[in-house]
Amino acid sequence: MDIKKIIRKSCIGFEPYVAGKPVETLKRELGIKNIVKLASNENPLGPSPKAIKAIKDNLNKIFFYPDSNSYELKKALSERYRLPVGNIFTGAGGDEIIELVAKLFFNSSDEIVISKHAFIRYAMAVQLMGSKAVIVPMKDGYSHDLKAMFKAVTPKTKAVFITNPNNPTGTYNTKAELSAFLKALPKNSNGVKPLVILDEAYFEYAKLKKDYPDGLEFLKDNPNLIVFRTFSKVYALAGLRVGYGFANEVVVDFIERTRPPFNVNLLAQAAAVASIKDGAQVKKGQTLAKKEKEYLYKEFKKLGVKYLDSAANFILFNSSPLKGKELFAKMLGEGVITRAMDEYELSSWVRVTVGLHKENELFVKKLKKIM
Ligand code: PMP
Fold first, then answer.
1. What CA–CA distances, in Å, run from 115 to 67, 122, 139, 165, 203?
2. What is the mean pLDDT of the segment spanning 232-240?
3. What positions are modified (N6-(pyridoxal phosphate)lysine) (predicted)?
4. What residue ranges line ligand 1, CB within 6 angstroms?
5. Are 243 and 91 in contact (CB under 8 A)?
């Protein structure tokens, strides 16, 4: 039997997605004892002690299903961001949120506007649904060109993805740019403006920049806007898979109807609630990233390595004369995991996550040896 005959057509062309591997897997595969992982933009300080306590306190409850409505989590988010619970939804990380939105809205006749080097999961969600990705080149090569994205909008455009700041380039769009873009968007063939899906996974890092916009401020005037964030980054709960989004109540209502009933697990909900209430831990993560980015910029400059200023907790740097893949492999051999960027069509670039100072020092030491 040819199973491919019954597989959704848009899935046939799927390439396997190779996510960052866990440290233990690499130690096993490479036979190296000491490995430093600077590959997946996690916060090396780890989660809030309050989150750890909440997980421990809830361990004896895991024989129950989690609260399908994430009630406590939505309540905590509602208090923290001063928005009604009806405008909030949750998911198993930003990754699931991208898929929930795609499954709800994207049809095969739709066009979805995406920046060339934007976070890769958007294009994959578009492909999954059999929609057409309209890829727009970036401004100066590395940042979302909102004017060009605007020009790419046609009556068939169902949605536009904006990553702010963008992974892997670390670049961001200013409040003035985003505001002008949202205002100017024309209506599509359904007589409504295309959805704007604003990915703010690195919000807490980027908000230290003066002209970085808080997407939530635009929700009131833009019912076509969906903003989402995650607990995987500054909150350091990547292993638990929990993210959250804000949108018009009609959008939220339909996401609620179509999502899997228990998509956010019980420990994740408890840890996320405790994390939101621990501002001090967020501050520590922000401060570390800011200080260590300065250290890495300084070292890149000394080495004559080109890099992009980042509003997030990672830096994209140029690996020339080596290919990114080669530098990645050499670094791996030295026990430092970075991320090559071939899947983003940035074959001479490597992304490094900003780690603890001693991890960054090790990275620099190995970079000096290799380059
Ligand atoms: N958006 C961006 C821009 C990201 O970098 C990531 C993580 N790599 C995500 C969304 C998804 O993160 P998570 O599923 O862990 O919330």
1. 36, 10, 10, 12, 19
2. 98
3. 233
4. 41, 93-95, 119, 163, 167, 199, 201, 230, 232, 238, 243
5. yes
Which of the four pLDDT bands, split at 50, 70 and 90, describes residue 30?
confident
Which residue type, as a one-letter code, is found at position 96? E
Q: How far is the CA of 191 from the centre of ligand 1 (A)?
A: 31
For atom 12 of ligand 1, the residue with the nearest CA is: 94
DSSP 8-state assignment for residue 193: P
Report, as an integer, the average pLDDT of 110-138.
97
Residue of the CA atom closest to atom 5 of ligand 1: 167
What pLDDT, on a 0 to 100 scale, did the predictor assign at position 8?
87
Give the DSSP letter string of 123-149.
HHHHHHHT-EEEEEPPBTTTB--HHHH
Q: Are strands 225-230 and 132-136 parallel, antiparallel or unpaired?
A: unpaired
61 vs 38: CA distance, rounded Å: 34
pLDDT tens for 127-173 read: 999 999 999 999 988 999 999 999 999 999 999 999 999 999 999 99
Q: Nearest 5°: CA angle at 187, between 183 and 190? A: 150
CB contact set of 167 (below 8 Å; sequence gap of 6+) = 41, 119, 201, 202, 312, 314, 351
Asked if residue 214 has pLDDT above 90, the reply is yes
Close Cβ partners of 282 (under 8 Å, ≥ 6 residues apart): 204, 234, 235
Structure tokens at 133: 């990705």
pTM of the complete model:
0.96
